[in-house]
Amino acid sequence: MSALADPSLLAKYDVAGPRYTSYPTVPYWERTPSEAQWLERVRAALDAGGAGGAALYVHIPFCRTLCTFCGCNTRITRSHGFVAPYAQALLAELDLYRSRLGLAQLEFGELHFGGGTPTFLTAAELETLLEGLLRRARPRPGAIASIEADPRVTTAEQLQVLARYGFSRISLGVQDFDPRVQEIVNRVQSEQQVREITQGARACGFDSVNYDLIYGLPLQTRASIEMTMDAVCRLRPDRIALYGYAHVPWIKPGQRRFTESDLPQGEDRRALYERARERLERAGYREIGLDHFALESDPLWQALRAGTLHRNFMGYTSAFTRPLIGLGVSSIGDAGDAFVQNDKDLQRYEERVGQGELPIQRGHLLDTEDQVLRGHILRLMTRLATRWEQPAERTAYVQTAVQRLAEPAADGLVQIETDGCRVTDRGRAFLRNICMAFDARLARHRPDKELFSRVV
Ligand SMILES: C[S@@+](CC[C@H](N)C(=O)[O-])C[C@H]1O[C@@H](n2cnc3c(N)ncnc32)[C@H](O)[C@@H]1O
Ligand code: SF4
Fold first, then answer.
1. Ligand 2 neighbourhood includes 319 CB (under 6 angstroms)
2. CA-wise closest residue to 73 among 251, 217, 215
3. What is the rounded CA–CA span in Å between residue 228 and residue 280?
4. pLDDT grade for 447, boundaries at 50, 70 and 90
5. Is the distance from the beta carbon of residue 60 to the nearest atom of ligand 2 less than 6 Å?
6. CB hemisphere CA count around 313 (13 angstroms)
7. pLDDT score for 439
8. What are the structural domains, with CATH classification, of the chain?
């Protein structure tokens, strides 16, 4: 019986839990590195990565209007007065990295513009920022550049600038095509608008187009999500992220603007994902890990087949470049054995950079246990299986994880072997629950207030 046909399983495992874009998850970070410790780890990761260079993530927080479902770090404004000082702070932050690391130019294998809405910036503002960035950082041969774009504010001129500066991947926020759903979440955009940007991007040379979609939004029904998927299949992006709506109104009060009783729950919510999945698979898309899909021609599917798929703060990726240096307000960096997150307040971020300080607000130095468990969670998320072959990994914390898996194993969600475990087809819907068995920090300190959205 599939998970969908067994409502008791959905009821049992529909708890609050992390999405595991990192381990330890952000609420459990506790040992913030000093600036010197962070830079030491970035340097070590650059040395270990050899010719790969760094991955640079640049956060642009601005959006013109608030989509009420949004869980991202945004600054809602129509004013472009914020852009020049912010762009200046981004470049100043990059200068701090260059001078502290003693590098005339930082080399990068990946460059990601995320948000908020990077295409809030006009074509001219984007060009000025990119010009400044590329004077300070140089792409390695084969470097990949990608951007998140909102079709409602993206223009052909912006796409041309981006293509000229080497961007080849674009991710469009589509979310849902049903007018009732669009209305209630304050995100109205037509199929034609999305088509124009998709075609415009392809015409400029973008070779991978992703759509972000969400299931579990208010007023969505099985019929409405099928209608959305039919439109998506007509437009045929290379990749799709089908996120489960994360309802966290205690963190994002904007989510209180719709009625909770309009949110699909439990079995109804999972049915939305399953209907969408059926439609997408029928159109030739392949499911990747948790809530992602790709055509067989896309590097994400090829990475899955080759066993090289990776997952980081931005989700699944076919490239694996370390260190990840996050520039901008709230951006996250990852050096493998250390994480940092920048100040989340725009003004404080700019002030700290202006004072010549890396604007780190919090972070975490990973210990051996964190690193072993991170490896298992990452493999489960990307390969749906993990192994504990090395003697060092036959540790108390792995044994504890295996004990926690006894119940999911009895329910047929995971198969436990002598030297590893594997998620079953039935268990795919519960991948986050299975990863939670390896989350020693969560087990040690069960939150006494809500931290995460629901898992299923
Ligand atoms: C930075 S936005 C994408 C770019 C642009 N701002 C836009 O919306 O078109 C990142 C994506 O996160 C997803 N997202 C935002 N809030 C979410 C939530 N509460 N639950 C699930 N996904 C969410 C949306 O699919 C959104 O497209
Ligand atoms: S979904 Fe995108 S456009 Fe909407 S508020 Fe969030 S970041 Fe901004």
1. no
2. 251
3. 11
4. low
5. no
6. 29
7. 95
8. 1-24+368-456 (1.10.10.920), 26-327 (3.80.30.20)
